[in-house]
Amino acid sequence: MEEKELLKAIRAKAKDIKGLRGVGNKNPRFKTWHVSTLGLLKNLPKNFTKQANSFKSLAFTDTKYHRTSRPSESDDIQIFNRDLEEALKILKSIKPLKKPEQE
User: Which residue ranges of the chain lie beneath pLDDT 50?
Assistant: First the structure.
């Protein structure tokens, strides 16, 4: 995929986040979005490794061990939405590479 097309697809993924808020990490629509976004990020040039790794590190769920009780559903949604906001920041930070000036 050409860089221009790739960046356009990533911008579209960033826009999709609005419709994913509150659905949770087990929702099929979210899972499809997440897997396809990871696929796009794998095709980015090496200059974007930091952003791709930051996105991959988002869990979209509570990853802490809870001895007594599981976190509430509202806690899960808060964590999910927080990670979606972080994903949005990461995706928006991916800008076209600047071409070297012609002499």
Answer: 100, 102-103
